[in-house]
Amino acid sequence: PVFVQNAQAKGFGFFETIPSSMNNMIISFNLTHKNKDMRAIFQDINFRIGLSHAINRKEIIDTVWVGQGEPWQLAPRPTSPYYNEKLAKQYTEFDLKKAAEYLDKVLPKKDANGMRLGPDGKVFSFTWEISDTRTDSVAAAPLVQKTWKQVGIDVVIKVEDRALMYTRKDANDFDAMDWGGDGGLDVILEPRWYFPYSTESQYGILWQYW
Questions:
Q1: What does the pLDDT average to over 64-91?
Q2: Which residues 6+ apart lie within 8 Å of 158 measured at CB?
Q3: Distance CA 109, CA 46 (A)
Q4: DSSP state, 117?
Q5: What is Dmax (Cα atoms) for the chain?
Q6: How many C-beta atoms surround the C-beta of residue 133 within 10 A?
Q7: Residues 6 or more apart from 101 whose CB is under 8 A from it?
Q8: Element (DSSP H or E) covering residue 5
Q9: What does the alpha-carbon distance between residue 197 and residue 210 come to, in Å, rounded to a whole number?
């Protein structure tokens, strides 16, 4: 407000820049997980689609980012020559019924509390690791955790030192983690989210090593 009120008198103005990133918080499931059961579940696209529909992006945007932004996938920005509307918007609708339908294809069995059971017959649970430098993700994570629980998925949020998180990532020793969406404009120069080409491709660490 101070800047806006004094802009005309002091002779300065404002302009918007276009960020190179295409998302503020991308949750990565470890598709090369060391545990074969966990790996199979994470690799099942129905699991990931189900959890995507169980994220209330509008609530998160309004609460954490003060209404700035719109629901988006891991897809190039409209200002990129590689923009594709279907890729950008698919599975972003918040729909718990639809989420449950997809998850039923992967984890159909539930306990008395409605929590989904894994292949071992126990409540399926995984840990989402967040760098302590990512304050927005720390604030948003409980909102995701809340709606995922409503469709029977238990996630444990673990906030930790960034160096530790990177060590665990590089060792392929994690369930899930998040990061920002680089590659919104520079799709060719920064393709980390489009195929696993470096250790920044959190979802496919072993694939990128190969």
A1: 95
A2: 127, 128, 129, 130
A3: 15
A4: B
A5: 69
A6: 11
A7: 50
A8: helix 2-10
A9: 9
CB 185 within 8 A of CB 191: no
The residues pairing with 131 across neighbouring beta strands, listed in sequence order, are 160
Give the 3-state secondary structure of residue 162.
helix
pLDDT at 16: 82
pLDDT per position as a tens digit, 94-113: 999 999 999 999 999 999 99
165, with CB counted inside 10 A (0-12, 13-18, 19+), is buried
**Which of 49, 54, 61 has its CA nearest to residue 25?**
61
* Whether 86 contacts 74, CB under 8 Å: no
Q: Determine the pLDDT at residue 4.
A: 86
> Which alpha helices (DSSP H) does 14-56 contain, by range?
36-43, 45-53
Integer angstrom CA distances of residue 65 from 54, 136, 137, 181, 198? 19, 8, 11, 15, 29
Return the closest-CA partner of residue 185 out of 12, 71, 21, 64: 21
In degrees, to the nearest 5, what angle opens at C-alpha 67 toward C-alphas 62 and 72?
85
Strand ranges, E, within 9-148: 26-29, 125-131
What does the block give as tokens for 204?
């496919």
- Does this model's pTM top 0.85? My answer is yes
First to last CA, the chain: 52
Residue in the block written with tokens 């129905």 = 46
Q: Bridge-partner residues for 117, per DSSP?
A: 123
Structure tokens at 167: 């060590």
